[in-house]
Please model this.
Amino acid sequence: MKLANQVAIVTGAGRNIGEEVAKTLAAEGAKVAVADMDKGRGIKVAAAIAQAGGEAAAFVVNVAIESEIAALVEAVVAKWGRIDILINSAAISDNKTILDITKEQWDAVIAVTLTGPFLMSQHAARQMVTQGTGGRIVNIGSTSGFFGRSRAIAYSAAKGGVANLTRAMAVQLAPHGIRVNGVVPNKIGSPVGKDEFDPTRPVVNLRGRPGVPLDMARAILFLVSEDSDFIAGAMLFVDGGVSAMLVGDRSQ
Model:
């Protein structure tokens, strides 16, 4: 197993990408803190991991509230003694344009989608530094953070911030043996904040199919394992090749 005896925190692990990441890391031997705002979802995912022979526990956390983040980190260390891996998956979107979004809606998205990964990483990294054995952090970005789009102004800005937050964290945490990378999905699984996945949703990419959470989970497993030891500060595009395509070219 690639992650035997390691402890991982996955935020937003109650569904979609976060859920699949939690299950994938557990299948490779990690003890997984299934962190989500929804207690029921977290318990369900942790139970599924246990049923499959893994080890996990559910934790309720709102990543927009620093005191809850601090409590999560403290609880995980109290349970398993350490933190080796952090996956920042929790996010919300606004689906608004700059002409109709309110400041309150903007602030809410930034708090969860950008400030949340910052605070989670800060608290987890401090624990990793204290341990003195390094660690790995993966931030989940989005193609929305690299290209303009017709809606979701706050989400786009937040994910753009996540990309450079990842690079800055990689530089600042490298002296402590902590590798930081990011992954960049495009329309993988259900839309942000939604439970429903429509496999017939039209997509235009080089693979000719919608992305599924397992696509992301496999990429993240690579980034937190020794297989990627020489990769740091990267934003790995897991988007079916959509970002490589010429805008307007639908020949695929």
Summary: The first helix runs from residue 16 to 27. Helices lie at 16-27, 39-51, 66-80, 103-131, 153-173, 213-224. The chain has a mean pLDDT of 94. The CA atoms of residues 149 and 156 lie 8 Å apart.
